[in-house]
Write a structure and sequence with these properties.
single chain, alpha+beta, T-fold, three-stranded antiparallel sheet, 26% strand, transferase activity, FAD, EC 2.7.1.180, metal ion binding
Length: 351
């Protein structure tokens, strides 16, 4: 089955957003701090980011670092934010030509990764999702969602297909073979932003840090306690914040995709934001969330979306086959059930 990647929910209420991100990043061990640390945060668009540094280099100035991180996140936004008409991706989507469209090397490399995953998954992962997601209203900042007419679904489906998108690394550029396709990189944008911020920190000599934006995490080195970074995975409940499990992260990224924050109900039926382009409608499996640990946050983000699209059975098989470290939570009549891969089991916290 071919399905589209999910869009992350961006919460506008700042106090609620702070509570969400802090709950996701709750330290599961005792909070005793054993090493000097800096804690920084800011807003990028509608997403709140957090950065924690252990042993900040003496050459760093905290105010200058804050400004540099703000600029790093803003640059990512300028590349990827389709809701910002001035972004590179928004301009590419509006472009009606089918010749090469110049982009930054970082954007070209990101698109190359998404196309590799599209091929690996036989189209399960597809970033040319714009027409269908826009049709269903899941990328609308007005919150307006509704079940479309079948004729509109059929028309949108004709504009979807990763095979219609090409990438060139030298010189970096994108090209579409069909002028009206829309590329949507929301499925990797937050993970990519976390990785970009991490690389910025490393260029400044920072070796021990955690970056988080909208729940996607990149870690390197040691936490202020002198051990791995302890991160919580949420239980996929619609009300409140409940911890499901904890993981120990070191030199890794973590991302979670779920259906419990971005959905609507019409006529007594629940519609989540993961859409199957073969039908043009949201998928109907019971998977509520999937978390992935990978070498970096971008890859974790992409695979979490891919597995969420597949569902609990096909997703688990795909993860086992491709060596993806994943943790699944799905709904049953008796409550939630879980499964994990061998690799993910190794990072689960015992605390």
């Amino acid at each position: 089955m071919t399905v589209l990647p999910a869009l992350p929910v961006k919460i506008r209420n700042l106090s609620l957003l702070r509570a969400l991100c802090l709950s996701v990043l709750l330290l599961l061990a005792a909070c005793e701090q054993r090493s000097p640390a800096w804690y920084l945060e800011g807003m990028q668009g509608t997403a709140l980011w957090h950065v924690t540094l252990t042993h900040p280099p003496a050459t760093l100035n905290q105010a200058e670092l804050q400004a540099g991180l703000n600029q790093t996140f803003a640059q990512t936004n300028q590349w990827l934010a389709t809701w910002d008409e001035t972004s590179v991706l928004a301009q590419f989507n509006r472009y009606q030509g089918t010749d090469w469209f110049a982009v930054a090397p970082e954007l070209a490399q990101l698109v190359e990764l998404t196309l590799q995953l599209s091929q690996q998954s036989n189209g399960v992962y597809d970033v040319t999702v714009g027409p269908l997601i826009k049709l269903w209203g899941f990328n609308s900042h007005t919150g307006v969602t509704a079940v479309p007419e079948q004729t509109a679904i059929d028309a949108a489906r004709a504009k979807v297909g990763y095979q219609k998108l090409q990438v060139r690394l030298e010189p970096p550029a994108l090209r579409k073979s069909q002028a009206d396709i829309l590329v949507n990189l929301a499925s990797v944008a937050d993970g990519f932003a976390a990785d970009q911020a991490g690389r910025y920190l490393e260029a400044l000599g920072v070796r021990d840090y955690m970056v988080e934006i909208a729940g996607e995490v990149r870690t390197r080195g040691l936490s202020p306690r002198g051990d791995a970074w302890h991160i919580a995975i949420e239980k996929p409940v619609e009300e409140g914040r409940v911890i499901q499990r904890g993981v120990n992260l070191q030199e890794a990224g973590l991302a979670t995709s779920g259906d419990y924050r971005n959905f609507f109900v019409e006529g007594g039926k629940r519609y989540s934001h993961t859409v199957n382009p073969a039908t043009g409608s949201p998928v109907t499996h019971n998977l509520a969330s999937v978390s992935v640990v990978a070498a970096d946050a971008t890859l974790a983000d992409a695979y979490a979306t891919l597995l969420m699209a597949l569902g609990e059975q096909q997703g688990k098989t795909f993860a086992d086959t491709h060596g993806i470290n994943a943790y699944f939570i799905w709904r049953t009549d008796q409550g939630f059930e879980t499964a994990d891969t061998v690799g993910f089991r190794q990072v689960l916290s015992k605390k």
